Amino acid sequence: MTDWLTTPIPELCLALRGDEFPLSDYVALLERQIREEEPQVRAFLDEPKRFERLQHEARALVERHPDRRRRPPLFGLPAGVKDIFHVDGFLTRAGSRLPPEALAGPQAECVTQLVEAGALVLGKTVTTEFAYFAPGATRNPRNLEHTPGGSSSGSAAAVAAGMAPLALGTQTIGSVIRPASFCGVVGFKPTYGRVSTHGVIPLSPSLDHVGWFARDVAGIMAAARVLCRGWNPNAPPSRPRFGIPQGPYLARADESAHRVLEAAVGVLRRAGYDVKAVSVMRDFEAIARNHQTILAAEVARVHRAWFRDYANLYHARTAELILAGQAIDDSTLRE
Predict the structure, then answer these.
(1) DSSP bridge partners of 242
(2) Is the pTM of this model over 0.90?
(3) Distance (Å, whole) CA 76 – CA 57
(4) CA dist., res. 25 & res. 31, Å (int)
């Protein structure tokens, strides 16, 4: 018997497109999984009639695409969406106490891309406040006493707990790859600008990336074909050479992380890949300082009006960052 909760996205979508696994049955299966896991994991924002909505949208999707041979590539695939993405029909709170009407905006382009490819919006997932520091209620499904990582905590946890096959997140510093690592799923941060951030509440526009989570690389690639500009699904003509960044950057990782990295390098070498130590970012401390300057300055500019009107509703750490950014002048930011 097929375990549809762990089936890779390409095979799952194939079964949904061909009605091998009816979409209404899949929505019912996810409902059972979410009712079992969500009370402990707390990956989603509350939506009282979530499954009535999803079943209605599933029926409408089937009616819109009666010809199985012409159904879109992500037909019926439910996706969690981090609550800094605007989604039609949903409020956006960005993990904050600000009134959602103040934060409202048009649906994110990447959400529209998924929906046009046949995906269903499973629901909004928990984020740290404005994708920065102040955590939400989400817990790590691998160990409920551990952090899921941030800021895309709900998206990573939802995938790890089997509640969502795919979930959107964002990364400004480490907010896709960190929660993916903590929760034991695959996270992908494309090259800057490869996926549109239009319709996503920014943290720092010069640094923000849209990314996503899946159980495996096949799931990541299925979404990349829809979301990434100019995506080429073909394998490179030769095996890539891997560089391991020796120096101050890698020195920041703790001993357990080094052991995991060494094990991964061993797997690559045994598989025949060329892996070389590369000395990079000797000025990493300066890079980190400049990154923080850009972050603080841009956050202050993004939040200028909101912070003026609702400063008392911000978490102390977010307010601290905004106040630091207000002291950074335009010439310093340009430099």
Answers:
(1) 275
(2) yes
(3) 9
(4) 10
